């Protein structure tokens, strides 16, 4: 149980570091993924990642970049504790004897197993986060139309016309309550579970495999205990990039499904979403927000793995 406690603690610290560093990038990624396809002849809401950052800061200030952080912050301990603990327990099962380093292939298997476990936590958490960010996108669009459209008649009694857009959700818990009440109960919170599996299982397999492979390469062998922090940062950053580089289209499908209207859905499922995105936007549509995701993955995962390794080694 000592190893389990160490993985739980170190995974929690690593996840907190990852979230703090990476959430602003994740916000921009979801904004780009969830923006609607513009009518023919019109420009999209955001011309790119930099434009999305500028518009978010102008409309909401720096806090807008941390929109939807409450849900992942509330579950970051559980998510990363499960990820690193399941991986650690699978390592123990695959070792021929205590303390024996695993091969890269064995680390791939451990990462895939950990990906299965964390999918059940990632799906509802990200549904809440995506709904909050998508709502911010929708409200900005409506506010823009209200401002630039035809003049609105004065309100009865001579007051100013009401052009403010009502906020649908009051925060993460309000999203969860709405989904539970109006979208099929607990099942509604797991909308997008299939593409979440398709992201987490191969993504974590690639990430942990690349991480171990790079550590062994930098150490010149399977014993990586003497690696310095710079090497851990490099291995962690590139491992994170391998996650998104290998599974990004599944994340786009997940995001559009999770923000799809429950009563009048645009997509009937993951395959339908994939086909419609490909038909309307081409391959490029499956990589919306890819730049921010990759920009996030390197520093965020570098921080995560470094915090995990340092915390775990300090626990003895």
Rg computed from alpha carbons, rounded to a whole number of angstroms: 21 Å
Proportion of β residues?
under 5%
Helix content: over 70%
Helix and strand succession? HHHHHHHHHH
Distance between the termini: 14 Å
Number of helices: 10
Strand count: 0
- Low-confidence regions: 141-167
Shape: globular
Give the biggest beta sheet.
Answer: none
Q: Which class of secondary structure composition applies to the elements? A: mainly alpha
Taking all residues together, what is the mean pLDDT?
Answer: 85
Explain what you see.
This protein is mostly helical and 316 residues long. Helices cover 71% and strands 0% of the residues. It contains 10 helices and no strands. It starts with a helix and ends with a helix. It is found in: Mitochondrion membrane. Solcar repeats lie at residues 2-93, 102-217, 227-314. One of its GO terms (molecular function) is L-ornithine transmembrane transporter activity. It is a multi-pass membrane protein.
Task: Summarize the model shown.
This protein has 316 residues and is mostly helical.
Keywords:
316 residues, globular, single chain, 0% strand, mainly alpha
Could you give the topology of this structure?
Layout: H1 2-34, H2 49-60, H3 70-94, H4 104-148, H5 172-182, H6 186-189, H7 193-219, H8 229-258, H9 270-281, H10 290-314
Helix pairs in contact: 1-3, 1-4, 1-10, 3-4, 4-5, 4-7, 7-8, 8-9, 8-10
Subcellular location: Mitochondrion membrane
Membrane topology: Multi-pass membrane protein
GO molecular function: L-ornithine transmembrane transporter activity
């Amino acid at each position: 149980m000592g190893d389990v406690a160490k993985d739980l603690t170190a995974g929690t610290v690593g996840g907190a570091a990852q979230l703090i560093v990476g959430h602003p990038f994740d916000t921009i990624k979801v904004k780009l993924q969830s923006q609607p396809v513009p009518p023919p002849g019109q420009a999209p809401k955001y011309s790119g990642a930099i434009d999305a950052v500028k518009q978010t800061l102008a409309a909401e200030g720096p806090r807008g970049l941390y929109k939807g952080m409450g849900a992942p912050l509330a579950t970051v301990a559980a998510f990363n504790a499960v990820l690193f603990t399941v991986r650690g327990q699978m390592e123990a099962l695959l070792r021929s004897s205590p303390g024996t380093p695993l091969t890269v292939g064995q680390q791939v298997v451990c990462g895939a197993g950990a990906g299965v476990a964390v999918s059940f936590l990632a799906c509802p958490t990200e549904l809440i986060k995506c709904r909050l960010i998508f709502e911010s996108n929708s409200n900005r669009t409506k506010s823009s139309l209200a401002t630039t459209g035809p003049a609105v008649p004065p309100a009865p009694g001579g007051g100013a016309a009401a052009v403010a857009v009502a906020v649908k959700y009051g925060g993460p818990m309000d999203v969860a309550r709405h989904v539970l009440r109006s979208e099929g109960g607990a099942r509604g919170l797991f909308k997008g579970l299939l593409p979440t599996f398709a992201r987490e299982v191969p993504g974590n397999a690639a990430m942990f495999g690349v991480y171990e492979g790079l550590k062994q390469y930098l150490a010149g062998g399977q014993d990586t205990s003497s690696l310095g922090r710079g090497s851990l940062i490099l291995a962690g950053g590139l491992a994170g990039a391998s996650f998104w580089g290998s599974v990004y289209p599944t994340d786009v499908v997940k995001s559009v499904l999770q923000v799809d209207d429950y009563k009048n859905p645009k997509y009937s499922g993951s395959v339908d979403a994939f086909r419609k995105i490909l038909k309307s936007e081409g391959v490029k549509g499956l990589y919306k927000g890819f730049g921010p995701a990759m920009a996030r993955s390197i520093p965020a995962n570098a921080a995560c793995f470094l915090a995990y390794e340092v915390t775990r080694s300090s626990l003895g």
